[in-house]
UniProtKB/TrEMBL annotation:
GO MF entry, a single one: 4 iron, 4 sulfur cluster binding
GO BP annotation list: gluconeogenesis
Pathway(s) where this gene product acts: Carbohydrate biosynthesis; gluconeogenesis
Protein name per its UniProtKB record: L-serine dehydratase
Family: Belongs to the iron-sulfur dependent L-serine dehydratase family.
The Serine dehydratase beta chain domain, residue ranges: 4-155
Length: 457
């Protein structure tokens, strides 16, 4: 099993990896089918199902689908160009993706929210169709956005999750148990094994440049979030708070006024800055999802700014360790809130961040595994119930608390020798079972929890 660091950490746009980035990527894949088809399509249509329908407007799924069919992709997304394209599409009822003729597409009638039962493969389903001049369907594909920006066709999903067909990697661990055994046998750290796997597929230069870009985008996102204030879009009237909190923390420096637990506010403000940017539709990095995008960068920034002995040169070690843990969670359970609740998003992010922090603070592979387990265990059962379907309440603050838990988990693990009662594999399996048993109304449908108990109009 191999999941690249660039699959766990993708540069994209807010507010949601599964509901915004995923549908945009699905549309891009459908356009590729049309480019390769032996016929010319006249128009396109789309339908959104399950969670993509229930919380699609709040997550900008409709906007992402339209832009995806117009040829936009998350990695190179430009907000100004997107706004101009949307206005033109509304006026002309046409999309004009590169390499294809103009296609008839009226967002008011050709994009349908299906609020009935979800499609059978996953809670986040969508169907894309191409039509001829008479309106008959000449090509159709079903896509599932399975979390973190990952997209599978119906056929790919049915074929199973172990679909990696690349060349063998040096350390192909599928479980934490295998990972620890390979670390003991090889004498390598988790990050070193992950690096060897990455280099075997893409080369060291690609890896180094790509990881540097991941951190640059994460760090820039923190800085933008701490520099802006105002009201977040969506109608809830949620105020951006990161800038004000950051200003207060700066003012308190050196005045001997702040209590020791103020460090928690620093962790929270870094995470909240990211998730406020995400809620505003800004550029973020999935870590492993948009909804949980603040946890990993907040813990890295905490380590760099507040922990003696930290070094930017070790950020790749942090990210590679975190990606290894995230890959185990995704492969053996889920990172999708629509599939397993927020335990799969912020819980997974906290496990990844705890593992990364433990590693760069000198933890052994056993301590790193313990850190990840502690963080994930104490998110088990967490629901995903966004108010009004927006990635704002409780999502923004939840990332702050996830970062705090991650740091606490790493600290606890470093106080021990790596031995502990509950293995990470057992915790991941428990999360999978809990997600399976969880009521659908608590899995990113906004049909339960805070979403129905907080006035949102």
């Amino acid at each position: 099993m191999f999941l690249s660091v660039f699959e766990m950490f993708k540069v994209g746009i807010g507010p949601s990896s599964s509901h915004t980035m995923g549908p945009m990527m699905a549309a891009a894949r459908f356009l590729d089918l049309l480019r390769a088809a032996p016929f010319a399509a006249h128009g396109v249509k789309a339908s959104l199902h399950g969670s993509l329908a229930f919380t699609g407007v709040g997550h900008a799924t409709d906007r992402a689908t339209v832009l995806g069919l117009a040829g936009f992709v998350p990695d190179t997304y430009d907000h100004t160009h997107a706004e101009a394209a949307l206005e033109q599409i509304r006026d002309t009822c046409r999309v004009a993706p590169t390499g294809l003729p103009e296609l008839v597409f009226d967002p008011r009638t050709d994009l349908v929210f299906e609020f009935g039962a979800a499609l059978p493969g996953h809670a986040n389903g969508m169907i894309l169709k191409a039509t001829d001049a008479q309106g008959d369907v000449i090509l159709q594909e079903t896509y599932y956005s399975v979390g973190g920006g990952f997209v599978l066709t119906e056929g790919e999903l049915a074929a199973g999750k172990d679909t990696d067909e690349g060349a063998p990697v040096p350390y192909p661990f599928k479980t934490a148990t295998e990972m620890l055994e390979m670390a003991r046998t090889s004498g390598h750290s988790i990050a070193a094994m992950k690096r060897a796997n990455e280099v075997s597929r893409g080369g060291s230069d690609t890896l180094d440049k790509g990881v540097a870009r991941i951190w640059q985008v994460m760090n820039d996102c923190i800085d933008r979030g701490m520099a802006h204030d105002g009201i977040l879009p969506g109608g809830l009237g949620v105020k951006r708070r990161a800038r004000n909190i950051h200003d207060q923390l700066i003012a308190e420096r050196g005045m001997n006024l702040a209590p020791p637990h103020t460090i928690n506010d620093w962790m929270s403000v870094y995470a909240m800055a990211v998730n406020e940017e995400n809620a505003a539709g800004g550029q973020v990095v999935t870590a492993p999802t948009n909804g949980a995008a603040g946890v990993v960068p907040a813990v890295i920034r905490y380590w760099l700014d507040h922990v003696p002995g930290s070094s930017r040169a070790r950020i790749p070690e942090f990210l590679l360790t975190a990606a290894a843990i995230g890959g185990l969670v995704k492969y053996n359970a889920s990172i999708s809130g629509a599939e397993a609740g927020c335990q799969a998003e912020v819980g997974s992010a906290a496990a990844m961040a705890a593992a990364g922090l433990c590693a760069v603070m000198g933890g052994t592979p056993e301590q790193v595994e313990n850190a990840a387990e502690i963080a994930l265990e104490h998110h088990l059962g967490m629901t995903c119930d966004p108010v009004k379907g927006l990635v704002q309440v409780p999502c923004i603050e939840r990332n702050g608390l996830g970062a705090i838990k991650a740091v606490s988990a790493a600290s606890l693990s470093l106080r021990g020798d790596g031995t502990h009662l509950v293995p990470l594999d057992a915790c991941i399996e428990t999360m999978r079972q809990t997600g399976h048993d969880m009521s659908e109304k608590y899995k990113e449908t906004s049909l339960g929890g805070l979403a129905v108990n907080v006035p949102n109009c």
